[in-house]
Structures are given as C-alpha cells and as structure tokens.
Amino acid sequence: MTEPRRWVTAADLGLLTDRYELSMLQAYWASGMRANATFSLYFRKMPGARRFMLACGQRYAAQLITQLRYPKAAIDELSRLGDFQDAFLRWLEDFRFTGDILAMPEGTPVFPQEPLLEVTGPIAEVQLLETILMNLVHLETVLASKAVRMVIAAAGRPVVDFGMRRMHGIDAAVHGVRAYRTAGIAGTSHVLAGLHFGLPVSGTMAHSYIQVHDDESAAFKAYADLYPGTTLLVDTYDSLAAVDRIVALHRGFGKAFEIGAIRLDSGDLAALSLEARKRLDAAGLHDVRIFASGGLDEHKIASLVAAKAPIDAFGVGTALGTSADAPSLDLVYKLTTYDGIPRLKNSPGKQIYPGAKQVFRFRSPTGVYEFDEVTLRDERRDAEPLLVPIVSGGTPLPSATPDAATAASYAKTQIDSLPPPLRAIDPGGAQYDVRISRAVHDLRASATSRLQHC
Amino acid sequence: MTEPRRWVTAADLGLLTDRYELSMLQAYWASGMRANATFSLYFRKMPGARRFMLACGQRYAAQLITQLRYPKAAIDELSRLGDFQDAFLRWLEDFRFTGDILAMPEGTPVFPQEPLLEVTGPIAEVQLLETILMNLVHLETVLASKAVRMVIAAAGRPVVDFGMRRMHGIDAAVHGVRAYRTAGIAGTSHVLAGLHFGLPVSGTMAHSYIQVHDDESAAFKAYADLYPGTTLLVDTYDSLAAVDRIVALHRGFGKAFEIGAIRLDSGDLAALSLEARKRLDAAGLHDVRIFASGGLDEHKIASLVAAKAPIDAFGVGTALGTSADAPSLDLVYKLTTYDGIPRLKNSPGKQIYPGAKQVFRFRSPTGVYEFDEVTLRDERRDAEPLLVPIVSGGTPLPSATPDAATAASYAKTQIDSLPPPLRAIDPGGAQYDVRISRAVHDLRASATSRLQHC
Predict the structure, then answer these.
(1) What is the three-class DSSP state of B413?
(2) Are A170 and A299 contained in the same domain?
(3) For A378-391, what is each residue's pLDDT tens digit?
C-alpha cells in the first residue's frame, strides 16, 4: 500500500521548504553569522500578454510566516535527513522570525524590478523564508493577474470561477479563490473556499443530471421545483430545443416553474445567446438571464462582449484556474544587503540591484499612473510610497492586512487608475515606465567596482 | 484583518467540491433516485506536444474518497449556504461511498477516450465524487506527464525537482512529488514532500550564501567544511573563475576540501560544462560531477544531451512544476449509464460514448504497444485489460495501491514499451492507435436513436 495522504497544517510550515534553505541556515548558525540581511521579492519579466501583475498574497504570506516554528515532530523529521547537528536542531526548536517586513498592499498593480515585499532580519531567518514566501505569493499573484484580465474582458458582467476540478491541487483551489476575490471575480463554485473567503458560492447542474432523467423537461421541472430561481443547463442535447422546452414549461406551469437563468456551455455562444434571448423574450421571460461557460478565456469573453452577445454572466474554469497562457511568473527572492553592505550577483541575465528599496508611484492630477521609481529605502519623493511596514520585530502590525472588501475595492481603484493601454487584453507594445533611481544605479556601480577589486 | 489561512484536512473532504454536486445530491435524495450509475474519467485531447499521458493519482484519489464523510463541522458549514434541507443534512451525516471503482495502475500511459478510472454506485454518491476526484487525478497526471518528458530527454542522467517555489500552492508542491516519483524523477528539493514520499531530498546552496561572504573562496571552503561532498554553486559572479577558485582550494587544502559537484545555473551551459570539465579534469578532480540548472525544460535538456555536454544531472524547476507548455488536461468525468440504460450527451465537440467500459492493450510479441481497444465492460479480448477493481462496496481492496517502488518501475517498463515515436520530445505527427469497439459504436447509435425518438 502507498503512504497515506499528507494533509499539511501550520505545524508543517518549517518543512515546507527547499533543503538548501535549511543547509544554509545551519551554516550561518555554525559560523555565527547573525548580521542583518535584506531580501527583496520581485520579478524580472512580465509573462504572456500581461502589462501589469496584480500583487496578491504578500501580506497574507507575511502574516503566516510569523507563525513558522519547529515543533518536536518537525525536528524529528529533519533529523532523518542526516545532515543536521543535534545542537542545531535544538536551536531550531526556539526558531521564530524576529525581523521586519514591508510589502505593497494586496491588489496593487506591480511591474518588473519592483519589490512587492522586502524582508530584513538576521541572515539565517530571512534566508529560510525564501521558498514558502515565494510559493504563497506566486500562486496568488499569478491567479489574480489572470483573473483581472477576465474581469476586464467581461466589462462589468460578473465572472464566476468554475475551475476547481482542474486547478493544481487542493491548496490552489482554496487559496486561488482568495486571489480571485481581490481581483474582482464575483463568485466561485468551490464550496469550502467560497465559504471561507466570503465569496458567493454558485452552482447550477451538470449534464449528468439531465442525462439520468428520461426526459429533459422532467429534469428541468424537478430541479426548478427544488431550487426556485435556479439556473438550467441547456446544452446536453440541443441548446435551442432546450430553451423551447423551458418556454413550454413556463407556459404550462406559470409561476410554478420559476427559474433565474439558463446556462449555455458549448457551441457558438454568440449566436446561441442571441437566439435564446429572442425566444425567452418572446415568451415574456425577460428576467431569465443567460449565463455562458465552456472553455472561456479573456479573449473569448472579450469577443462575445464586442459582438454584443446578450450574455449576463460568464463562468470560467481551466484557463483561469491554471493561468493557462502564463502559468508562472519569474518571481525571485534576492539578497540585496548584508551587514550594511550592498550585495549583488552578476549571473548573465540575472543581475541584482543592491540595497533595501522603496517604490514610489507618480500619478497625474486625475490619479492616473504616470510612472514608478524604484529608489533606495531612505530616499524621499513627493509621491506615494508603495512598500509599507506590515511585520515589525516578528509581529504582524494590526493594520497590515486589510479585510476582504477593502482589498477588492482597493484593487479595483488601482486597476482603474492604470493607463488604459496597459489594461487592454491584447496590449501590443504598451509598457509602463519603471525608473531606477540614480542612487540605486550608483550603488550598483560602486558594488560592482568593489567586487572587481576583490 | 483578513481571515486566517485555511489548512485543509480529511474532515474537509466533503466541502472540497463544486456546489452543484451537492445541489444534485440533494435533488437525487429528494426524488428518491437511487439507481446505480457509472461515471468515466477520461480526456478527449492530448495537450501540448504530448503523445501519451502518464495516468497518476487515480488509485490514491480513489482510496482517499472512501474516507469522505460529513462531520458535524462540515454540516454546519453547508447549512450556511441556505439551500439544504435539515432532513438532507441529517442524511448527509451518514454519507459514505458504497460503490465500486476500477482504475488503471498508476504509471500507465493513457490516451484520449480511454477511461483511466470508472466509478459505479448509487447516482448521488457517484456524482458527488466528481470535483475532488478530478482535482486530485488532474494534478498528478499533468505533472507526471511533464516529468516523464524531462526524464526521457535526460537519457539516463538524473533529473531533480527544484520547483516548489513556483508550483501552484502547497498541495501541488507536496503531491506533485508523488507524481514525479512515479515518473522517474530522481530527487526533490522539497523537504516535506521528499521525506513523506521517500524521494531523496537534495539541496546545494543559493547565490545569497556566496553573496554574504566577502570572498567566494571563503564561502566555498566554509560550506565544504560543514558539508563534505557538497555541491557548490559557481555562477554568482563568473562560473569559470569560480571553477578556478575550486581548483585552487583543492590544490591548497587537498583532502580537507572535499566536494561532490559543481552547479552551473546560468549562461551557455554546454560551453561552460565543457570548459569546467576540462579544468576540473586537469586538476585531477575527475570525480567532481557537473550539475546543471537554470530555466531548464525538456527541450533544453535534450539539446544539452545531443551536444554531448558533460553534465551529470539536471535540476528543473518552473517548467516542470507548472507543466508550463500544457498546464492542464481536458479531463472529464462523465455519466455513461444510469439504471442499466446507456446515457449520452450531444453537446458539440463533447459527445460521450455510453456504457461502462474496459480498455485492452494489444502488444507485439516483444511487448511493444500496438494498439488499444476501448470496449464495453463485459467484452472479452485476448489482451491485457487495464481497468482493475480497486474499491469494492466502498472499501479499498488490499492490493489496489502498489508501493512506491512498484509504481515507478511499472511506469518505466510501460514507457519503455511505447512505440519509440511517441516517446520523442518533438513527436511530430505520431499518434497511438486507440480503437473503439463495434459494440460501443452500436450502443451509441442505439442510444442516439432512442434519444431522437423521445
């Protein structure tokens, strides 16, 4: 028999990491290297057709890692690796993060080279957080950044998540919904996630429900009897024939057959929605809405909207849930200072700007983003600083993580403030202007020169 | 403040679902529909450049869903949705799956239209399993099918997983490693997953470890002192200069500086590995292996192998961990019979072959796959039947889930038995021959005809 499933809880946080983080931790411990380091979480390239990413998960992750401990069971697991000294493992029992974290608010549009989170603290602690912080922030940022494209394409119509079945595992299906909420997704089919994150839990029926009834009309009537105001799936056999059946049921039963919507799930959704709308309206069913699903992505949604298809809401699954065109972001977590000295690396294509940083966002008088400037942490500008303290001395600050409604409305305001070309589904060559301050450039030049003299 | 993180355990299994599964469950309960149904888990199209998928997770998932229950806390959660009657929720407290499951062995190459798992039981129970079964099997099958491409490309050299940081959440990073193990991945950097699934947990050092030392040689020496036989990362500043430093340390310290490998992580890996090998060999360091990583995928691995780059092992991250070129599979779970009557649907592009099925694999006398035939369950062929009972009356059969070593060696044998063109990284037009039996075609024709006379 195979091993049982491994359910993961907060007690496992210290094992949710790459082995090398722990190897380096022991090396720092063994050599007594305890000076402060700053690491910066950012990405280098915009993936797919994105012209902005929606930073999500960074405050949630920061809050979580303040709970990272090594309980006895975790220590026992680690001892199985064989590389760790007993004295180190005893020291690990008292491990907790004692440093500081700054981060952008969740729902902030973010661009290449901009830190969305920075951690400062004793080198060993700050290094250890790398893998888990990246995993948590990567998931939410990738999914939120895809979701916002769907929301923009739908131009005000609700977009509902149906993707759980093909998301990458259970955690993605749970915490992806947190990212969707920030990005403006209107609901989810996923029961646990919707209940936990306060997003409406929506659901209709599957084709199988129709199939097990000998007659489609009987299936429709039974479902509407149990769930007045429900949504009926019409494409099991023939979408328009099913609409005619619904009209006939309405004629036959009147108020005893009350539905809220139909769902089209295949075929030419523009043509079918037009004809279905016509038939529903002709029967006086003006209030019955049309819901569309079936392999939708932001491009298909945008073309249905452009074609003025009378679709009231969209259900999206796999393209959203896997961020199909750009399933990853080249998020990195890089050391930029240690012991007060700026640090860099020179690997081809992977150069680092040294120093703890701040990001300033400059806006036009009407609030539209004009450009950003990445500066050293202690530089001042007459603009909005995006990195804000959220963890101090290992303790989350009370105001650090906004409630759900705040994050979603903040994100909406920010997205609405982007230069319009950046919001396009096919943005062409549009690029946001991110400037690197003179002081950052100078620090890199002096650090590079120091390195060459070593 | 935001809600705390939602750690998920076995007690949550009944909530890890789409709402419509529960709505249909109540509808079946309310109408007394309790006849048996068969659902089939399969996919319609091969994604990306795949010419086979490696079926993984289906037996693990089947075993897990026999534990699906609705404890009091889950019932309380569900009652918040408002749609469920008290009597139904009380009935749900006693829910358990009582049906039968057949599945292919994990690690079986599988092709479009072939059920990799079939469930038979009372309609309400069997419907309920849809979302969670799909989520679990989709994850492992997608990741294993990508992993096997990396393993094939590496042509016998070990491939190690470094991808945790950019996989989609924690569950993917844990259970993905289970799929990797079946697919022949040699190790993982992920501590918890490697320990749990018995895959070697590997790790070296990050650039930051080099950066915090004022001198690269000092960093190398300190790490090798603590971890004799370790792997040193050489590309922080200049890969070949770092190799020269290693050679100098070897000359200076002899046996007091013992390393096992170097890791190249950027630049022209073919050229760098050749030159590094030359310099290591010239210094007598023939046993120091060369490990390569940095944005690798199966194509880059294959071209390094073709160029005869002296690389001994490959580390792969994001391309593997997100199955970057094909992050999803159009896996579906479809009703094919209910109450003894074959069922189908006619949605454009989504037709179903009705009836419970079996898959037979025909092989040449030397064991190479020749073709498969999808038949009705009770048809007989002189060939290997791939669907085997693994759950009976809701109870997992003892022999159903093989141990780790068995699954990995079974998968290797199966992959080695594929027609060679299907194993190519760029398979061109190669396609495996999957036949649908005459009896299945006839059943579809008669079911379609019955439908048209309704």
Answers:
(1) helix
(2) yes
(3) 999 999 999 999 99
Cβ count within 10 A of residue A382 = 6
Q: Does B9 touch chain A (CB under 8 A)?
A: yes
Q: How far is A372 from chain B (nearest CA, A)?
A: 26
Contact B205 A402 (CB under 8 A): no
Examine the domain organization and report whether A269 and A345 are in the same domain: no
**CB of B222 less than 8 A from some CB of A:** yes
Here the ipTM equals 0.97
| Whether A122 and A164 share a structural domain | no
CA A219 to CA A204: how far, in whole Å? 13
Q: How far apart are CA A345 and CA A444, in angstroms?
A: 10
Q: What CATH number is attached to the domain comprising B98?
A: 3.20.140.10
DSSP A291: E
Q: Are residues A375 and A271 in the same domain?
A: no
List A residues 273-312 in contact with B (Cβ-Cβ < 8 A): none
CATH number of domain containing B244:
3.20.20.70
Q: Are residues B92 and B223 in the same domain?
A: no
Domain termination site, one of A321, A342, A374 = A321
On whether residue B154 sits in a domain, the answer given is no
Q: Which of residues 72-111 of A touch B (CB under 8 A)?
A: 77-78, 80-81, 83
Q: Does residue B205 fall inside a structural domain?
A: yes
Residues 6+ apart with CB under 8 A from A115: A40, A41, A42, A357, A359, A374, A387
Neighbours of B143 (CB within 10 A): 33
Instruction: Say if B19 is an interface residue toward chain A (CB within 8 Å).
Output: yes
Distance from the A78 Cα atom to the nearest Cα atom in chain B, whole angstroms: 8
Give the angle B73-A62-A76 at the CA atoms, nearest 5°: 70
Q: Least CB-CB distance to A347: which of B189, B236, B349?
A: B236
Using alpha carbons only, give the angle B444, B450, B452 rounded to the nearest 5 degrees. 105
Whole-number Cα distances in Å, A39 to A243, A343, B169 = 58, 10, 21
Is residue A223 situated within a structural domain? yes
Inform me whether the C-beta atom of residue B39 falls under 8 Å from chain A C-beta atoms.
Answer: yes
Smallest CA–CA distance from B405 into chain A, residue: A2
- B26 and chain A in contact, CB less than 8 A: yes
Q: How many CB atoms lie within 10 A of CB B88?
A: 16
Taking residues A67-89, what's their average pLDDT? 97
For chain A, what is the domain count?
A: 2
B267 vs B275: CA distance, rounded Å: 13
Domain end: B319, B347, B376, which one?
Answer: B319
Say if B205 is an interface residue toward chain A (CB within 8 Å). Answer: yes
Q: Do A347 and B164 touch (CB under 8 A)?
A: no
- Judgement on whether residues A380 and A254 belong to the same structural domain of the protein: no
Chain A interface, best mutation among B126, B129, B135, by max A CB count within 10 A: B135
Chain A, residues 391-410, CB within 8 A of chain B, namely 398, 401-404, 407
pLDDT in tens, A40-67: 999 999 998 999 999 999 999 999 999 9
Determine whether the interchain pair B20/A189 forms a contact, defined as Cβ–Cβ distance below 8 Å: yes
Across A199-203, A274-278, A339-343, B174-178, least confident range: A339-343
Mind telling me how many Å the CA of B356 is from chain A's nearest CA? 15
Kindly state whether residues B438 and B310 are assigned to the same domain: no
Domain that holds residue B25: 10-144+326-452
Which of B8, B142, B272 to substitute to test the interface with A, most A CBs within 10 Å?
B8
Q: Is B372 domain-assigned?
A: yes
Q: Read off the pLDDT band of A1 (50, 70, 90).
A: low
Judge contact between A133 and A117, C-beta under 8 A.
Answer: yes
Tell me how far apart the alpha carbons of residues A313 and A290 are, in angstroms, rounded to a whole number. 7
**Residue written as token pair 């470094």:** B162
